[in-house]
User: Fold these one by one.
Assistant:
Number 1:
Amino acid sequence: MSWLGSLNPLRAFSGYFERHPWHRRLLILAPILLLLALLNPVIGSVDKLLALVGKVLEPLINTGVGRGILLVLLLLLICVLVYTFARERVLNVLRRHALSMHLQATEALLRGEHDRARKGFARVLRWGRWIDLSKGPVSAYGSLSIDARLKTARIRLSEDDVRRARAELARIPRAALSKRLAFSYAELNARVFAGHPDHLPDSVLRVLDDSHKAWPQHVGIGELYADVLLQHGDGARAAEVLTETMRRTSKGQAPRVAERLARLHADLARTALHSGDLALAGKNVDRPLRLFESEEARLLKADVHLAKGNADAALAVLSDLATPAAKERLGALLRHEAAPLTPRVLLSRVPRRDSLVVLAEWYLENGEIRRAARALEVCLRSGPPSPRVLALLALARLSQRAPEAANAALERALTTLSARGAP
């Protein structure tokens, strides 16, 4: 009745009829049925039709077999009506149930309950054989069937069952992968290739290289590719892969890759230092400090300077560190033959108690007992007593043939240890 415009008496109910089109159709059909009911011939025809239906159904109703046939026909009619008018609603209910099972299995996977998670994903896959689990209310999560297979493959890989993981990935249609699922598929496929015993090393490297070129921002693929390259002794290429991954990945993942890359450069610098390639060691030791500054990298830089005979540069690096490893490097500077460090320079460049302890140990090694004792006494006066300093002082007193002073220093060291709660 849109042609009536503002004169339409049902204009106030237009929104309701748009939401319920069958009610609008019944409203249109009602006057027609009323008109037909007033017509006697029509009523007679309807009466004859009902009588004919009754005659047909009467023998069926009177027998058990007939009633069974009628029941089957009624159920079929209900199924047809449900399939015609409520099919999507029923399918959406089943999809929501499958989503619930999928989320429960994912929760079990996050908790480390792999058996329970695997059984849950298997149930989701059985439902996926009969229902399309990529439509309806679950479409926002992607295809549940594909995601269940990917998570099952991930569980197999965590259990070192590479063959079954590969079989799960082989059942996934590549064309049906969304971007998020393709991201996970690429990582798992790379891990399967890297861990499968039947694959040749060259083919593994080729697949990993292709995966990295296709997904350079994927941290898992980049780290896996770098690990395989390190196994083949190509540390430089591994560093290039991690560098590209760090540039292309998200801001949240970049610090993790930077830390891994810093450790890799530190390992490369350490290897070059042991092999005597000081130029390569110096090139690699600066990169970790720019990426992820750590005590290990700074100590390694000091080692490179020591190997080059640059005591001043090594001392500049160690002056900001107050760790046992830094103390060892300071002692190494004092013992360095190519560029020896004098006690005066050490105390002027590193004016700390640690320097006094290092000097005392060096004096004891060189038989200068008096200077060692003097350095330890100054160290004790400059701060709280340290068991290590007291033990060194006791050793110095014994060397000076003063057993009573040595015993007093040891007793004081034991008292300090007991006060700190040491056993």
Number 2:
Amino acid sequence: MLIPPYPADEAVRLTALRSTYLLDTAPEPFFDDITRLAAEMFEVPIAMVTLVDEERQWFKSRVGQRWLRKFGQSVRWSRWVLR
């Protein structure tokens, strides 16, 4: 799989992510409501709010899927989205 390079502003993005203090926190109704709304609006069975740091993609909220909590860096397809 082709993995894109990190964006030029990756350090800024990671600093902003860390400043939210959301990584590795418990589920919150606010995020669960947004995730549920997205699933309903797009009429899909699975929706997620994910946070991507330098080592993993971590799921803050999930609808329709409960078995997965995070992906390691080797499965970071979301780096394409960050570009």
